[in-house]
Amino acid sequence: MRRSVAAIWAVLVLLATGWSGSWPATAGAVPPQAPFAAYQYGTDGCLEVGAREGQPKPYAAPAGYDPTAGYPAFGYDPAALGFTATGGTNACRYRFYDKNPRTDPSAVVIATGYCVQYAAGQLSGTGYDPQEAAPVRDAGYVRRILATSWPNSDLPSVPSTNPTVANRQRSGAVAMAIHWFTDGIAMPPDYQVPALYDSVKQVVDAALAAGPLPAPADPTPALDGPAGGDAQQLVGPYTVGANALGPVTVRIDGAGVAAYTDAAGTVPFTSGDTLPPGGRLWLRGPAGQVVLHAEGPVQAAIGTYMAGDPAARVQSMMLATAVPLTGKSERTLTLVPGDPPRLASQVSAAVLTSGAPVSDTFDVTGLRGPATLTATLYGPLPVPGGADGDCGQAGWDGAGLPVDAVYDPVPLTGDGRAVLPDRTTGEPGCYSFGARLQPADAGPVDVPPGDATETFRVDPRPVPPVLTLTTRASASTLPVGREVTDTLTVTGITPGRTVHLEPTLYGPLAPAPDGDCAGLDWTAPDLPVTARLAPHDLTADGSVTTEAVRLTAAGCYSFGTVLTHDVLTGGQEPVEHGLGNPEETLLLTAAPSPSPSPSPSPHPSPSGSATPAPVPPLPDTGADGTGTVLIGAAALLVLGATALAATRRR
């Protein structure tokens, strides 16, 4: 790019937005507050895949695709596989900082990661937090890729031997391999560098051969203990931060709840104080919910899921390198006045995209002996009221509800928590879990489908649009002194996103030997620049025309436009479009030299004498004197003619 580093960072800062301090909300939990554990800013190697016009676009597999069936071979037929063209991207590895580099110049890089949500957008400066669960498809295969590929090994092999270029190629190949598992995005069958297509396939094939990896250790301070207990009785112990690297701050939300660091309830603990790693607490309070919050330093391993600030609407990532981070966690428990067994449950998310995993968590309290928990997933039912309808109103009271899955019974021996295994969502619609707790010595406890904490909606997996920039100069040939403009047209902008355009007119270059501009090298460094034109921001599809530039030197010119955006993953990598393309190139020709007027030849007069040469015009003395000069000249001619006639009469 012919841009200074400072200019590129300026574009990134313009695109970035401020981040808020909230975490993704989960039912029964209070969203933790700032600071976030890490800040994403900038990239550490990218590969262009359909990022500019003229490049082949990637394809999205249909919703029911099976990524474990293998990566399609180079040259595959998209139509035969049911694939759909999708938006291009800069497939990147991203940097994480300990502080926000936008506001703190002392920030340093602490880790790198890859995104796991295609077309979710990226904004530098966004805060990220480690999360225990990874709600993405085939997360185990993604963890395998991260553990065994670049930068943790020299895989995959890539065509370049230049370290800088090889880093870009490896990072981009790993990023595209990850998107095959998480989003069903495949490289174009006619990608312009077949060897890099093979690099992506190499990563996918290696992961499939080795198999998925389990989730890494909980990257948040552990909070272990019962799901609740009897009101006004000591409940515990709750072990805090057994996996922490240092003291853990503990905050307790619950009216009238007291905490203690001993089983006898004699050593009080104040909410907001710290405990050493593995410290224990006991609680006593009235009936109701209590939320424990913990914050402290933990080790986030390779493959840790990093959730971005939801206010910034950015893609989630997984760490490619292990790093100590500030982790936060919370635990909700219930103090109840009665004794019969109680069953509380919570689905993993209220809204999911087809292909994402879903699970259900059950907390059992008041159980004094063995019991069996059985669960059923009902659905899909049509979404009432349109695509964004409330699935709680989907008619769960009717008979003959469709059944999506019946889970194996879970044996229990007392109070505790049971988590159903992840299940990949499929057909869009409304779903709800139903469950029955059957104690050995008491009546059953049922959770019927349709409960708000058990109901969720599955939305179709969107295929991102193809973001396209087309450009055309106002003329292909002009004489010196004329003006030229460039028209920029962008399509594929999704709502809420911004495309930033920076046009430049380069030239002049000397024409080719045949006198035109075809075949000139517009990739050479230090191209001459005629004009840096005003930038434009577009938030919807449309066209803009640059200001006119008057050209004064003959030669070849070409417009080039640098595009940055937050529409797709990696969109903040500047990409120049159009430079050297025929529709952006024009030839400025020199003005023709004026032809000299031919000298008049004398012609014989009717009398045989030569016709006298024209008399030079009299000097122009101004508009007011012209009539006088003409009258004087006419008078002289009359007098001369009279004298000549008199002479001849003699």
Automatic annotation (TrEMBL):
TM helices/strands, residue ranges: 627-646
Record's keyword annotation contains Cell inner membrane: no
InterPro entries: LPXTG_anchor
Start-end of Pro residues biased regions: 593-605
Superkingdom in the source lineage: Bacteria
Record-annotated Gram-positive cocci surface proteins LPxTG domain positions: 618-650
Signal sequence coordinates: 1-27
Disordered: region residues: 587-626
Keyword annotations of the record: Cell wall, Membrane, Peptidoglycan-anchor, Secreted, Signal, Transmembrane, Transmembrane helix
The protein's name: Gram-positive cocci surface proteins LPxTG domain-containing protein
